[in-house]
Amino acid sequence: MEEASPKNPLLKIGEGGIKKFLTINAGVFLLSLGVYFFKFPNNFTTGGVSGLSILLGRLIPIPAMSPATLMSAINIALLVVGFIFLGTDFGFWTAYCSILFSFETWLFERIFPMERPFTDQPLLELCFAIMLPAVGSALLFNSNASSGGTDIVAMILKKYTALTDIGKALFVSDSLIALSSCFIFGMKTGLFSLLGLFLKAFVVDSVIESINLCKFFAIVTTKPQEICDYIIKDLGHSSTVIDAMGAYTQADCKVVLIACRRGEAVRLRQKCKSIDPKSFMFITNTSEIIGKGFRTV
């Protein structure tokens, strides 16, 4: 996640934050598509404010209070909580996402009224109701933002409890809402909702991990200087060099440690083999790299 800048989050747009801005908008759009076209018509309450809106819409059948209207009201209340517990930077982007999310669902209501589901295959509809919002939410979480609602509760749980994975925090914060659908919409819809919540939690964590996936290299070589020069000049990273000795040959060597992005990893692997054909490389996947050039806490 990017470092918070509580003084003026808008300045991030002018500081190379255009990518973040576009990512957030794409995330909200995917979220809106999945919620309006697949969750609302099928009464899938896989948690979140959208799920809570579906439940309240059934319990409080007020004509003026559509699911989109209820969602807007609940989002405003929880948004205040987000500002208090998660800071102004997170609050700013969450406010933006929440307003955009509510506006897009309201716009879809006006342009594409959904009186019934697209198909008569609830399992197929559930797949889209899970995948689209899960990918959208993952993009938002990875940008230090959320769509508001119970996502804010999940972020608070992640920050102040032992739940380090946002997917698990989502499951905890939304499980009661999904469980309630068993009593309001029947066991069939309720079980679909619980299944959807479980899959959503898994997909969110998987997408975030995939977005942040990097490669960690431990390169055993006798030509560390040439490799380090390439890393510094061409990849724009630094590295750590430690002394080593071959257990069989008893020959002195060096181990170069470096973390880099996936695209850079391909180039580094090829370059290392061209510099030192006898080099030995350990390459592992990692999505938790904290430090300059990657992520800050």
Distance between the termini: 8 Å
Strand content: 5-15%
Strand order of the largest sheet: 2-3-1-4
User: Approximately how much helix is present in the residues?
Assistant: 55-70%
Radius of gyration, CA atoms, in whole angstroms: 24 Å
Structural class: alpha+beta
Q: Uncertain spans, ≥5 residues at pLDDT below 50?
A: 1-7, 9-16
The largest sheet, given as strand count, sense and whether it forms a barrel, is: 4 strands, antiparallel
Mean pLDDT value: 81
Outline:
With 297 residues, this protein is α+β, with helices and mostly antiparallel strands. The protein is built from eleven helices and four strands, in the order H-H-H-H-H-H-H-H-H-E-H-E-E-H-E.
Explained architecture:
It is a single chain. By secondary structure, this protein is an alpha+beta fold. The protein starts with 10 loop residues before the first helix and ends in an 11-residue tail after the last strand. The chain has helices at residues 11-14, 18-42, 48-59, 67-86, 88-111, 122-142, 150-160, 166-184, 187-211, 224-235, 262-275, and strands at 214-221, 240-245, 252-261, 280-286. Residues 1-7 and 9-16 have low confidence and may be disordered. The chain folds into two domains: 11-211, no CATH class; 214-286, Alpha-Beta Plaits, CATH 3.30.70. It is elongated and about 80 Å long. The chain has a four-stranded antiparallel sheet. Helix 7 (150-160) crosses helix 8 (166-184). The longest helix is centred in the first third of the chain and has 25 residues, at 18-42.
